[in-house]
Amino acid sequence: MKRWHADARKFLRRHARDLAAKPFWIFSSGPFGEHPDLAWSEPPKVVARAERLGVAEHVVFGGRLPLEPSSFMERALVRDTPPECADLHDWDEIRRWAREVVAALAAPATATR
Known about the structure:
Layout (H helix, E strand, L loop, with lengths): L5 H9 L1 H5 L4 E5 L6 H4 L4 H10 L3 E5 L10 H9 L10 H16 L2 H4 L1
Parallel strand pairs: 1-2
């Protein structure tokens, strides 16, 4: 719900020194619904921390509703979201981005940092 999972935030803190010493990329799986670009905003503190560590890139991919909603909020989201908007994963876009990351890692070290 517009924030990173606690484990992801902890990972950035715990591994800050290692991350700052090597190229790394971050992706979020987030919005779904009719207007995902209007409904999603990245947590500014987390993005700022990643930028200070030198993140090569951060992208946000469309998300999906939970398949088995477990809370009142999740059940309401599933109930109120049209089925065609429930899963906005764009697997072609995700694969393209992953290939770009691999190509950047395969390039000479000076190109990634």
